[in-house]
Amino acid sequence: MPELPEVETVRRGLVPVLEGQVLARVEQRRPDLRFPLPERMVERLTGRRIVRLDRRAKYLLIHLDDGMVLLIHLGMSGRMMVSQGRPQVVSPHDHVVFETEAGSVVTFNDTRRFGMMDLVSQNALHAHKSLEALGPEPLSDEFDAAYLDQALARKITPIKAALLDQRVVAGLGNIYVCEALWAARISPRRVAASVAGVRAARLVPEIKAVLQRAIEAGGSSLRDYVQVDGELGYFQHSWSVYDREGEPCRTPKCRGTVQRLVQSGRSTFFCPVCQR
């Protein structure tokens, strides 16, 4: 599933194509994705001007000139593909097509159909069921060591599980939590409440740094993810620990070997020597 850097990369790729543009044509090719698509979606979107594109956690937010917001989640395999003019080859997995008056076409392709779209009033956006319980954005000033200390207090789950909890911090996923914990030299098995003080102060900037580097690299292409122009992300070539089981730890002077364990059904990669 695309994580924050991948969704942010998609948002940035769509901004020059969609922001300020009028949707001249919208085509809906099926009634649902993971959930039913919004009622009268084509009618409600056609002719609307896109004011701006935002992101909240792993959701794209397309703000329209009538005060509505198109909320999009890419799911496991969703892609937003940009072309000039309508593509000659149509995939059976191209489910929604947006065409602007300028002639740009954005196609939502989703092989597994785990994505979702919803239309919600901007005034009610904060209360949407997908957004209301989300924690702060990890790249925001609100996410700092003091906040993390408070959020993790009395949590007896492993720190890896706590960071994947979207109520603690929004948008983090398996890859970047593994990378950030390795960079901060914190064991993924450590009790979350014990990651306080010096450890929290070390972890927060590493989370931010890992995410920023991933965004600059266009995200990580794992399975289905590509950028809006079809290019792969490149951050997977910079992974320090994720998916490197059995390889030497990259921490200078560390003689450890990357190990894999399963936590909450997800693979965790870490160095048992330098991560404590």
TrEMBL record:
<keyword id="KW-0238">DNA-binding</keyword>
<keyword id="KW-0511">Multifunctional enzyme</keyword>
<keyword id="KW-0234">DNA repair</keyword>
<dbReference type="GO" id="GO:0140078">
    <property type="term" value="F:class I DNA-(apurinic or apyrimidinic site) endonuclease activity"/>
</dbReference>
<dbReference type="GO" id="GO:0008270">
    <property type="term" value="F:zinc ion binding"/>
</dbReference>
<protein>
    <recommendedName>
        <fullName>Formamidopyrimidine-DNA glycosylase</fullName>
        <ecNumber>3.2.2.23</ecNumber>
        <ecNumber>4.2.99.18</ecNumber>
    </recommendedName>
</protein>
<comment type="subunit">
    <text>Monomer.</text>
</comment>
<keyword id="KW-0326">Glycosidase</keyword>
<dbReference type="Pfam" id="PF01149">
    <property type="entry name" value="Fapy_DNA_glyco"/>
</dbReference>
<feature type="active site" description="Proton donor; for delta-elimination activity">
    <location>
        <position position="266"/>
    </location>
</feature>
<dbReference type="InterPro" id="IPR015886">
    <property type="entry name" value="H2TH_FPG"/>
</dbReference>
<feature type="domain" description="Formamidopyrimidine-DNA glycosylase catalytic">
    <location>
        <begin position="2"/>
        <end position="115"/>
    </location>
</feature>
<keyword id="KW-0456">Lyase</keyword>
<dbReference type="InterPro" id="IPR035937">
    <property type="entry name" value="FPG_N"/>
</dbReference>
<keyword id="KW-0378">Hydrolase</keyword>
<dbReference type="Pfam" id="PF06827">
    <property type="entry name" value="zf-FPG_IleRS"/>
</dbReference>
<feature type="active site" description="Proton donor; for beta-elimination activity">
    <location>
        <position position="58"/>
    </location>
</feature>
<dbReference type="GO" id="GO:0006284">
    <property type="term" value="P:base-excision repair"/>
</dbReference>
<dbReference type="GO" id="GO:0003684">
    <property type="term" value="F:damaged DNA binding"/>
</dbReference>
<dbReference type="InterPro" id="IPR012319">
    <property type="entry name" value="FPG_cat"/>
</dbReference>
<comment type="similarity">
    <text>Belongs to the FPG family.</text>
</comment>
<keyword id="KW-0862">Zinc</keyword>
<dbReference type="InterPro" id="IPR010663">
    <property type="entry name" value="Znf_FPG/IleRS"/>
</dbReference>
<dbReference type="InterPro" id="IPR000214">
    <property type="entry name" value="Znf_DNA_glyclase/AP_lyase"/>
</dbReference>
<dbReference type="InterPro" id="IPR020629">
    <property type="entry name" value="FPG_Glyclase"/>
</dbReference>
<feature type="active site" description="Proton donor">
    <location>
        <position position="3"/>
    </location>
</feature>
<feature type="binding site">
    <location>
        <position position="112"/>
    </location>
    <ligand>
        <name>DNA</name>
    </ligand>
</feature>
<keyword id="KW-0863">Zinc-finger</keyword>
<comment type="function">
    <text>Involved in base excision repair of DNA damaged by oxidation or by mutagenic agents. Acts as DNA glycosylase that recognizes and removes damaged bases. Has a preference for oxidized purines, such as 7,8-dihydro-8-oxoguanine (8-oxoG). Has AP (apurinic/apyrimidinic) lyase activity and introduces nicks in the DNA strand. Cleaves the DNA backbone by beta-delta elimination to generate a single-strand break at the site of the removed base with both 3'- and 5'-phosphates.</text>
</comment>
<feature type="domain" description="FPG-type">
    <location>
        <begin position="240"/>
        <end position="276"/>
    </location>
</feature>
<feature type="active site" description="Schiff-base intermediate with DNA">
    <location>
        <position position="2"/>
    </location>
</feature>
<feature type="binding site">
    <location>
        <position position="93"/>
    </location>
    <ligand>
        <name>DNA</name>
    </ligand>
</feature>
<feature type="binding site">
    <location>
        <position position="155"/>
    </location>
    <ligand>
        <name>DNA</name>
    </ligand>
</feature>
<dbReference type="GO" id="GO:0034039">
    <property type="term" value="F:8-oxo-7,8-dihydroguanine DNA N-glycosylase activity"/>
</dbReference>
<dbReference type="Pfam" id="PF06831">
    <property type="entry name" value="H2TH"/>
</dbReference>
<keyword id="KW-0227">DNA damage</keyword>
<keyword id="KW-0479">Metal-binding</keyword>
<dbReference type="InterPro" id="IPR010979">
    <property type="entry name" value="Ribosomal_uS13-like_H2TH"/>
</dbReference>
